[in-house]
Amino acid sequence: MLKDELSKQIIESLKSGNSVRVSTLRLLASALHNEEIAKQSQLSNDDEVVIIKRQLKQREEAVEAYEKAGRIESAEKERAEGEILKEFLPEQIGESELSDIVNKTIEESGARSMSDFGKVMSVVMAKVKGQADGKLTSELVRAKLSAG
Fold it and tell me: Measured between alpha carbons, how far is 124 from 131 in angstroms, rounded to an integer?
């Protein structure tokens, strides 16, 4: 389970003196714990991935905001935290493999236009289950449906 792995890594990071890693892992552990309390049940692996992605998205948005404000040092810290979070995500599907999945889904569903976008997206996202970026998937589906 992810919570056990996080506990081990927090201890290792404390011993090595890596304060950025310690704080990032503690925030992730806290987010997982809070979600578990809210659901009143143990989290599934899929739930954990969703929470990690949510945390990662927050870091990416913070990087953009800090860079716009000229706070490069803060942006770098957020970027480092994002890299730590990525370690806990499942292996991501490459763009070419994702493109193949999108093509196959469009063929199978008989989608012809942008009006079928939602139907195609829901099937593709179910197939890749957290192993592909939603934004990239959306761009690929949109491009294929617009071209076809």
Answer: 11
Any idea which architecture 2-86 has in CATH?
A: Orthogonal Bundle (1.10)
pLDDT one-digit tens code per residue, 58-88: 999 999 999 999 999 999 999 999 999 999 8
SS (H, E, C) 96-133: HHHHHHHHHHHHHHCCCCHHHHHHHHHHHHHHHCCCCC
| Closest C-alpha among 64, 40, 41, 44 to residue 52 | 44
Q: Yes or no: is domain 95-147 CATH 1.10.10.410?
A: yes
The 3-state DSSP class for residue 1 equals coil
Please state the pTM of the whole predicted model.
0.71
Could you tell me the two tokens for 9?
């890594």
- Structure tokens, 16: 């090595």
The distance from CA 110 to its chain's CA centroid, rounded to whole angstroms, is: 29
